[in-house]
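User: Hi! I'm working on a homework problem where we have to compare a predicted structure to a textbook description. Could you give me the structure for the chain below?
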Amino acid sequence: MIQTQTIDPKAIDVMEECSRRSAGESIVFPEVVQKLIGVGVEFYYADLYQHTRTYYFPNGESYTTQKQELPNHPISDTFSGEGVSAALKMIQRGEIQYREFLRLIQVAGTATYSVYLAGKRAIYTGRKGDNYVEWFPGARP
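Assistant: Happy to help. Predicted structure tokens:
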């Protein structure tokens, strides 16, 4: 766990809670977004190799969560934006939960993803830098 001296302990609690509850499938993405915005997080980076998240604040500070206990799935060498899009549609419709979503995006070649709260989009990136951009529902310019 990495943290700086000036991050509010309440913000750390919220970041850890969002990571833990996502892994435990007891929170949905819109709730995560609201909680993180509420403590000043600008964006976060999810590492699917390490199952960690690093949260970034506008002042340049960051906080990395402890590794989450999630199943390790092989990350495909070939990236499929269509596969990522299909997994996103399934989770948005409530057909799958977070762990299955992670499995599907890893099968589609996602190694990392970044969620830009103020920018209202997420970018899913493959092992070779290929990527897919998903706008938050209703946010596409």
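For your comparison, note the following. The longest helix spans residues 9-23. The two ends are 36 Å apart (CA to CA). Good luck with the assignment!
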